[in-house]
# Entry
Amino acid sequence: MADGLIWIALVRLIAVVCGAFMLRGADWARWLALAWMAFHVVVGFLHSMREGAIHGLILVVIAYLLFRPEARAYFRGGER
# Structure
């Protein structure tokens, strides 16, 4: 039980770190956020096909938003 809570807390901490550093324009943070969301797709499929599909759709939207030309410019330091 305690091991599960530690993993849940760690996954949530990763999300917070991603968000904070993406706001600061850290390029690595958007890649970590994408990996974090991909993890959620896998976990979603472990629960049900519908959950996995929904998480997959959210992953596609997030990937699109994070890798548009405007976002790439932001993460390169062009727009701050």
